[in-house]
Automatic annotation (TrEMBL):
Protein name: HIT-like domain-containing protein
UniProt short sequence motif Histidine triad motif, positions renumbered to this chain: 138-142
Catalytic residues of the enzyme: 140 (tele-amp-histidine intermediate)
GO biological process, one term: nucleotide metabolic process
Pfam family name, one: HIT
HIT domain location: 46-158
One Gene Ontology term of the molecular function aspect: catalytic activity
Length: 201
């Protein structure tokens, strides 16, 4: 049950719900399991217009139960958010099928973030409730690359949780990074498909 104190605004004004609605799952997708038609979950370029939402959203993944997009206030280059498609406030609200889909995509997206940024160390952070530093009351995981040289952040105790000094994502940079991530994600899925279908010795 949703605690009213955890709702900063109603779900119909949730920015993550707006992104999910702007990047729906096309009806051609079968989705009989998380492993069917996964490549279709990566939007093609004509489906990836950042201006479908305001502010712009740089979407990397639009799967059945999960959407992934760049943080518009990134801590580091390539800071990616992975959210439930449906409005769920806390992890305890997430349903079993959504959990399976999230579990399928998180490691793949972590590899994509590492490959695109060239940074092999990263945090995966998920906050539940305002006292736990959750700013948007919609379940989402942060994949935050940790390069050798970190930007100077004033409040270091909060850097793991996404607070501190952060600059807005430049639209041109966002479009470029998201495009590269989508390409890398397609490549990752292709490799996984080949491995899954390789003849067993």
């Amino acid at each position: 049950m949703v605690n009213e104190l955890d709702l900063h605004y109603p779900p119909d004004t949730c920015p993550f719900c707006n992104i999910a609605a702007a990047f729906p799952v096309p009806s051609r997708r079968l989705w009989t399991s998380p492993f069917v038609d996964v490549a279709d979950a990566v939007p093609i370029e004509r489906e990836s217009d950042p201006e479908k939402t305001s502010p712009s959203s740089f979407v990397v993944l639009a799967a059945k139960d999960v959407v992934a997009f760049l943080d518009i206030l990134p801590m580091t280059k390539g800071h990616l958010l992975v959210a439930t498609r449906e409005h769920r406030v806390k992890v305890s609200d997430v349903e079993a099928e959504e959990s399976r889909d999230m579990g399928f995509w998180l490691p793949i997206l972590a590899r994509v973030v590492s490959q695109v940024t060239g940074v092999t160390d990263y945090n995966i952070v998920q906050n539940n409730g305002a006292r736990a530093a959750q700013v948007v009351p919609h379940v989402h995981f942060h994949i935050i690359p940790r390069p050798e040289t970190m930007p100077q952040i004033q409040n270091k105790s909060w850097t793991m949780f996404g607070r501190g000094q952060r600059d807005e994502l430049d639209d041109e940079d966002g479009a470029s990074i998201a495009k590269e991530m989508r390409q890398m994600l397609r490549s990752e899925l292709s490799i996984m498909d080949r491995r899954a279908n390789a003849p067993k010795l």
